[in-house]
Amino acid sequence: MSYQPCPPSTPEPCPQVCPPPPPAPPCRVKPIMRGLHWAQTKLIIAQGFGLAFLGGAAYYVLISLPRMEAYKDFYAKGEFEDWADEMAKKGLFQSVPVESLKR
């Protein structure tokens, strides 16, 4: 469909009516409706996995690693024999009679 200009005006008592120009092409791209729900679902699932990974990594780095280091230090520096002897002297162990301990 091509646009043709109005022919030259002639001296007639009735005004001449030109055909309207064709509409301009749309400026925006039409949305893709086919498969839109599936595309959005895939995006949301990918974002969920990404956030879950980041949350797990943050928990590991900020909570688990310091906790493991604290346990390592506790068991490396712990004086368990001395602590057990002290608790036995205080009578906290039922299986160790207080009289059998050296004071």
TrEMBL record:
Presence of keyword Transmembrane helix: yes
Per its UniProt record, what Pfam families does this chain match?
COX6C
Keywords for this protein: Membrane, Mitochondrion, Mitochondrion inner membrane, Transmembrane, Transmembrane helix
Superkingdom of this protein's organism: Eukaryota
Supply the source organism's classification. Eukaryota, Metazoa, Ecdysozoa, Arthropoda, Hexapoda
Q: What InterPro entries does the entry give?
A: Cytochrome_c_oxidase_VIc/VIIs, Cytochrome_c_oxidase_VIc_sf
Q: Which species is this UniProt entry from? A: Galleria mellonella
Name of protein: Cytochrome c oxidase subunit 6C-like
GO CC annotation: mitochondrial inner membrane
Query: Can you tell me where the transmembrane regions are?
Result: 43-62
Subcellular location, record wording: Mitochondrion inner membrane
